[in-house]
Sequence to fold (548 residues):
Amino acid sequence: MANLISIKNCRIEDSRSTLIPKLDWTFEEGQAWLVIGPNGGGKADFVNALSGAGNPPLKIVPNSQKAEDGALYSSLFGDSVEIVSLERAARLIEEERLNDESEFVEGGVDIGRTGRVFIAEGICGKIKKNAPLPPEAQRIETYPAIKLCGVEKILDRGLKYMSTGEIRRTLLARALVSGKKLLILSDPFAGLDIQSRTILLDFFNTIVKKQGGDLPHVILGMERWHEIPDAITHVLEFSGKEITFCGKRADYEKVMAERAENNQNKKDEAKAEFSDAFSETLADTAVLRADSENNSLGTAKAEEENAAGTQASEGSLPLIEMNHVNVGWDDHRVLIDLNWHLLPGQHWLIQGPNGSGKTTFLELITGDNMQVFCNDVRLFGARRGSGESIWDIKKQLGIVSYRLHVEYRMVGGTSLLNVIVSGFRDSIGLYGAATDVETAAAKKWLKLGGFEGRENESFGSLSYGEQRAILILRSAVKTPKVLILDEPCHGLDEAYREKILHLLELVGNSGTTTMLHVTHDPSEVLVCEHHVLQLCPDESPMYKIVER
Fold:
């Protein structure tokens, strides 16, 4: 069989350093490869190097220039490679925000590039802003990829108004119409609803059987062994910045089975140790914060907050209320006549298909959607728009969301320590030096999350999954009244995912925080989540409230 990609005695590097020192791998015609491995283990470096992605761009470089050493890198695909990933989706939204000209537009809204324009650019190149649409953009609906990816109804919506799942499907549609010869799908099922995942699985299995010719070859990257398409024939695993498995799928499945059997007792012990570490970290953080307020004003404030919390709990006063809420833009209605309230200790699961309004619902609470001011939304007893500042609201919230992740990536040089400290201050980045108390508390949370000794690393240097884990720790440090979790496990490998889900379960059972949790993955639903808000965009009414 012909070699499509040959890598022998090479390394992966950026403009500053070597990321993976030794690499040997061959991709042959007829093979379908899965690239897998833990966060920070090298998988992301490899797929980014294959596609030329990364900031700075990553490269595959022979370790020797001597012919007799046999070091080489060759690819029949050349530059005809497209990657669809969480990282690429985040960069796309960053671009839209940087190019936002709302302050110069009549009406104050610049919707930016639409899905139609973005997908068409994959065919005809850059389209100038406000220029007439080229023929490719006008007839984009006729491309089979548009229907396959289910983006017909969102073609004329601005990219920054799309849900996470809609952005991913739009990226996939662009990749398919672009005519690129190699398509890399990195963690493609994250953020997709059940129907979209099913469509994508069927697409992958179909295209692999017919790859080559008019259809691209496909490489699949996954953070964990979950929903692996049947068409996968070979597995390449990275861990610790080196290849730890390279071979047939059947052999890898045997390795996975052996690991699972050997690690079960270790997992149980680690879970118990983590529970103890969480309790200790929570207690130590409370002591440190109490010591920092060890004066009459601080004591009075603490007593006042405790009294308020007790009163709220005893009287079952809602933390959040939404009365006859309606949200939408143009002719697109997202939420219609929504009535809902959140009581202390009631952990809610928020469900619904991509584009049903889950993120919009959460942004009414976080203050990131301005339509909150024309609706009856009450937080902690006060109606939004009644004089409270956004800081009054956010100091009582912990947030993990796609929007927050994008904003933090735009200040990616912040150290991990300062990212955690910023959770106490509700800021994106840290402005002003961290106090000794904040530093001590942040180090305890970093240790709990497995980042001990890495506090000076920059947020931007981490893999997408590691970044998400840091943001989850940031959200929990101040034990907020309400913890908002919008697909918190995006990009997490199996080990981190298990740890984070266990952490969230412990937070939910701590009695200090009430959680709102969005996820499409049934395996990520927490035991403590007994209340469910289901958003149903094609039904009337458009939502249901059920108990689990």
In short: DSSP finds 16 helices and 20 strands in the chain. Confidence is low (pLDDT under 50) at residues 295-315.
